[in-house]
UniProtKB/TrEMBL annotation:
This is MerR family transcriptional regulator. PANTHER family: MERR FAMILY REGULATORY PROTEIN (PTHR30204:SF97), REDOX-CYCLING DRUG-SENSING TRANSCRIPTIONAL ACTIVATOR SOXR (PTHR30204). It holds the Pfam family MerR_1. Residues 1-68 form the HTH merR-type domain. InterPro entries: DNA-bd_dom_put_sf, MerR-type_HTH_dom, MerR_fam. Keywords: DNA-binding. It comes from the Bacteria.
Length: 129
């Protein structure tokens, strides 16, 4: 498929797809006219890349990680290294800390909203007396 179709199917800009290629995250063949031609599996690859970026990983870590992820048959890749496992454990721990911080922030906001809502209701009740 051409780059425009891959961009449309994944919701990722053509510019980002070209960046993924520059970083070694995605590969394409070239048509005789020089256009990029992606295999069907590129859709899943781009979605996986987006998930990893969303998790906070940078492109060099993703490039290191992608070949070690589950193979097409669903089994674990045999090329994952102990260092990669250590690095990914650290990334997971960082994400867990972020989640904890976000939950704490949400709780503070809920408390402020609850207090403001109670005060507003009280003020409105007083105004109607």
């Amino acid at each position: 498929m051409r780059i425009g179709e891959l961009a449309q199917r994944t919701g990722v800009s053509a510019r980002s797809l070209r960046y993924y290629e520059q970083q070694g995250l995605l590969a394409s063949a070239r048509t005789p006219g020089g256009h990029r031609d992606y295999p069907e599996i590129a859709v899943d690859r781009v979605i996986r890349i987006q998930e990893l970026f969303a998790a906070g990983l940078h492109s060099s870590k993703i490039a290191e990680l992608l070949p070690c992820m589950r193979d097409a048959d669903g089994g674990p890749s045999e090329i994952a290294t102990p260092q990669l496992v250590t690095d990914l454990t650290a990334e997971r721990d960082r994400i867990d800390r972020m989640i904890t911080d976000l939950v704490r922030s949400r709780d503070v906001l809920n408390e402020v909203i609850g207090t403001a809502t109670d005060r507003t209701a009280h003020d409105e009740a007083e105004a109607h007396k």
